[in-house]
Design brief:
It contains 12 helices and 15 strands. The chain is of the alpha/beta class and 337 residues long. The structure holds zinc ion (2 copies). One zinc ion binds next to loops.
């Protein structure tokens, strides 16, 4: 079969690889879509420590089960599934206190083992969630990132009637915006420097989409009850920390460069009783993400591009340009015509 292979940091290309076979407890999924995300860029660039090269990346995948290994009863051949790529060890301190996303022995599909930028992939059956036939292909491919946003929402106090400010109008920021809206936000505004993204954000139902929080009455005034960073960019984080209303919450949702530090005023955190919290990946949020989509949340407009496997380079260039939204790779697209 064909798959995108990262042989070493900086070297990535579609290649012929052996078809996967299911080990006991595994199934083989014929991948219909797999989302490209920042984590893949870190794998391509070699900045993500647990990766063992060569690796087939891709952790936001959906498709159809085409083969099941020994002992597998669910899912069955023919089932449409979304795959939770995270595989906590179950044995470390954090797994045993019920915080598997903080696992000390982190393994994940598309990171430490073959992922979804391939025609087929073998995955543990327990990572598969059967999804309805009614889901659009775009929605099905967005379940994994949405489950990250659901976990982020779960980390927030979720009090109705509060005003939210989100930094970053990319896919993750807009998913968070859609979710906090369903959780009873009084208003949701977004800050981004990219005008193209801001124009889309306005069409996506944001109350305000601006290049600086100074342009917002609450930004200049009392601040927002909840500020979410979905950029990982230090200037955005520092600006956002200063826009939290007294008694409010700041959520670090974006992935920052591990080497960078952000400055904040400890006095402000003390005197205004600001909660600073973090949210990392997926935690008990995969099924809820599916259920939110099934309830009618329409995220299809978030997918801006779909490329075949052989166009992976073009997809990466488009991602790095930062002008689109979610990019999906459809590994079997060429075959299906
Ligand atoms: Zn991702
Ligand atoms: Zn663990």
């Amino acid at each position: 079969m064909r798959a995108v292979v990262v042989t070493e940091p900086g070297r990535v290309a579609p290649a012929d690889v052996p078809d996967p076979r299911p080990e006991p407890g595994e199934v083989v999924v014929r991948v219909s879509s797999c989302g490209l995300c920042g984590t893949d860029m870190h794998i391509l660039g070699g900045e993500l420590p647990p990766v063992t090269y060569p690796v087939i990346p891709g952790h936001e995948l959906t498709g159809e089960v085409v083969e099941v290994g020994e002992g597998v009863t669910v899912p069955a051949v023919g089932d449409r599934v979304a795959v939770d790529p995270n595989m906590p060890c179950g044995a470390c301190h954090y797994c045993r206190i019920g915080r598997g996303n903080l696992c000390e022995d982190y393994r994940a599909i598309g990171v430490t083992q073959a992922g979804g930028f391939a025609e087929q992939v073998a995955v543990p059956a327990r990572c598969c969630y059967v999804i309805p036939a009614s889901f659009s292909e775009a929605s099905a491919g967005l379940i994994e990132p949405l489950s990250c946003a659901v976990h982020g929402l779960n980390r927030l106090p979720r009090r109705p009637g509060e005003h939210y400010l989100i930094y970053g109008a990319g896919t993750m920021g807009l998913m968070m915006a859609a979710l906090v809206r369903t959780a009873g936000a009084a208003s949701v505004s977004v800050v981004d420097l990219n005008e193209e993204r801001l124009a889309f954000a306005e069409s996506f139902g944001l109350d305000a989409a601006v290049t600086s929080a100074d342009k917002l009455a609450l930004g200049k005034g009392p601040g927002f009850e909840v500020v979410v960073d979905a950029t990982g960019a230090v200037p955005a984080i520092e600006d956002g920390l200063g826009r939290v209303r007294k008694g409010g919450t700041f959520l670090q949702f974006g992935v920052a460069d591990p080497a960078r530090k952000a400055a904040f005023s400890p006095y402000l955190v003390y005197n205004s009783e600001i909660d600073i919290i973090g949210s990392m990946a997926v935690h008990n949020s995969f099924q809820p993400a599916i259920d939110v989509l099934a309830s009618g949340l329409d995220l299809d407009p978030l997918v801006s591009d779909v490329y075949g496997l052989e166009d992976f380079d073009t997809a990466v260039a488009r991602f790095k340009a930062g002008t689109g939204r979610k990019i999906h790779i459809a590994p079997n697209q060429a075959k299906e015509g």
